[in-house]
């Protein structure tokens, strides 16, 4: 499959969200000039243990801390996440953009998240300082998964979090990430949506990703076609993929207050409510 390059795509663009299976609600949050949308949706899973029906996952992605996002937007998003009080928070990579970005600001800005938090690294993290980022996040109590899995005990039953490392930089190893992971309630975190193709098929697994910024410049009828041409048809919102379910978060970085604007693709914080679907 051809590799995905955001630079190539944006050059081409320089010249609609796919709906989730149930109602999707978006609320605009604004603090001074900082802004993002809070998207709430339900995901129905036959694989979900009945004990986990109603469990809420919060997701943030592509923060690009440094020049890629005003600190105030991150602070506002963390505050909104804490007010929403999800059971778990999922962070799907690209905490920074370049080696020049302040990696120490990542744990400083995210360390006040109250819910147990799990993270994977993105391509920009691997191109900058992956070890420092992992260490910093772990120091503030987050679990960083690089082709690993772990369990969170919720209502007396294990909920499995599987982290597949970034596929754009070829650090992914799905078999290793799934090793020892029990079936039942599971969520997969990975940065690049295309990695969803590599997951075990037809297991009704939920996969959360980011990377695409929701198209960044989303021009109806053009952006979706260009993403398909580069082998990345999943670029924002909800998709079924090989018997599993994928949600692509639009990311928090860039747009207003930065040098790289967004078009029809506002920054996003997601709250996903998991629902048990009887087989």
Structure description:
It is a single chain. Mean pLDDT is 87; it is low at 1-23. The radius of gyration is 17 Å and the shape is globular. The two termini are 33 Å apart. By secondary structure, it is α/β, with parallel strands linked by helices. The protein contains 7 helices and 13 strands. Helix content is 20%, strand content 27%. The strands form 2 sheets. The chain has a 7-stranded mixed sheet with strand order 1-2-13-3-4-5-6. Strands 7-8-9-10-12-11 form a 6-stranded mixed sheet. It has a single domain (6-276), classed as Metallo-dependent phosphatases (Purple Acid Phosphatase, chain A, domain 2, 4-Layer Sandwich), CATH 3.60.21.
